[in-house]
Amino acid sequence: MASWALSRISNLQKHLSPNIPSPKGEGLVKISPEVSEALSLGKPVVALESTIISHGMPYPQNLETAKEVEAIVRQNGAIPATIAILDGVPCIGLSPEELERLATIGRKARKTARRDIAHVVATGGNGATTVSATMFFASMAGIPIFVTGGIGGVHRHGESTMDISSDLVELGRTPVAVVSAGVKSILDIPRTLEYLETQGVCAAAYQTSEFPAFFTEKSGCKAPCRVDSPEECARLIEAHNSLMLGTGILISVPIPSKYSASGNFIESAIQKALKEAREQNITGSSETPFLLARVNELTGGASLSANIALVKNNARVGAQIAVSLSQLRQESYKGNVPGDGSL
After folding, report:
1. Whether pLDDT at 277 is above 80
2. Which has fewest Cβ within 10 Å: 115, 117, 218, 334?
3. Pairing of the two strands 127-129 and 177-180
């Protein structure tokens, strides 16, 4: 637990002098004053990706959803830190004006995974961060929890195409806890779980023993482990980080029952969308946005409504976990340091 005390001291020094470059490259990153202050004081912070804003839905619905998700994080006691690259500058925590700008840019912003970060920065471009890029920046800033909709994974027929999301590799090397609704159901969920196991990633299901499947509560796959409360999640994260395992954690939260669409209905739409993607030779980073948009069309908007509902639910759970983790660390710090534990 003493390691967290040292981390807090490091955070204090970093945020008191935020423009001084460090070996990790933090001097190249802009951290909002609110997020910087929260991190330096050990308050709960939740990282949020920005691809869902730029590529997930049209304007102004994307802006409204982004604001609502940030509001839910605040209502549950944490500070939201939406991450994006604007004019070549990685931003951790967006102002209302920056959030609106990203929403209006929409798909003109580059969908930015870890591999794309350097090029977007070097060219002064605008980038909406995916799971892998958001994890990278969250780890750089010392944000332990990141909320998203669903992670990427092994694509169907991935054994032939080798189309595997960089999200999985990032989870295998970046110590950030990712709260999601499991793996997008357009993907090969059993193979994705196998790949996560190979990467040494703890994949936990929240209040269920079955791994959720994004649009639906069940995938037919047993979850490797189960956690039933924010406090249990916090203890899992703290044990993982204290042991310096060096990997991420995936905490999968089932979509609320009232928004869960019929599995067969969704699966039928997915199969049709996959067939169309193959016929149109849509692959790589373009495939997931195409599939999600096409499934939304085929389901008459039901899948988009479900997507928004699950992201909001994940934000609620993620913020509660962040608060529990902050409290656990504060209690542990006070118990290991003479005096009242304040800095």
Report:
1. yes
2. 115
3. unpaired
For residues 174 and 248, give the distance between their C-alpha atoms in angstroms, rounded to a whole number. Answer: 5
Structure tokens at 149: 């909709």
Q: What is the structure's pLDDT at 19? A: 43
Identify the bridge partners of residue 164 per DSSP, sorted by sequence position.
154
Catalytic residue numbers? 49, 184
Non-local CB neighbours of 160 within 8 Å, separated by 6+ positions: none
User: Could you tell me which residues are beta bridge partners of residue 128?
Assistant: 84, 111
Amino acid letter for position 75: Q
Higher pLDDT, 283 or 201: 201
Cα angle vertex 214, ends 85, 58, to 5°?
Answer: 45
Distance CA 202, CA 186 (A): 22
The CA-atom distances, in angstroms, between 336 and each of 40, 43, 232, 328 are 19, 19, 21, 12
> H or E segment at 46?
strand 45-48
Distance of CA 267 to the CA centre of its chain: 24
The pLDDT confidence band at residue 278, using thresholds 50, 70 and 90, is confident
Question: 138 near 176, Cβ under 8 Å?
Answer: yes
Grade residue 293 by pLDDT with cuts at 50, 70 and 90: confident
- pLDDT value for 36: 96
User: Do residues 121 and 86 make contact, with C-beta atoms less than 8 angstroms apart?
Assistant: no
Q: In the chain, what is the greatest distance between 2 CA atoms, to the nearest angstrom? A: 67
pLDDT at 15 over 70: no
49-88 residues labelled b (16+ CB within 10 A) or e (exposed):
bbbbbbbbbeeeebbebbbebbebbeebbbbbbbbbbbee
Give the Å distances, CA to CA, from 249 to 87, 125, 150, 205, 278. Answer: 31, 30, 14, 11, 32
Q: How many helices (H) and strands (E) does the chain have?
A: 14, 11
The answer to whether 143 and 176 have CB atoms below 8 angstroms apart is yes
Using alpha carbons only, how large is the chain's radius of gyration in Å? 19
Give the contacts of 14 (CB within 8 A, at least 6 positions apart).
22, 26, 40, 142
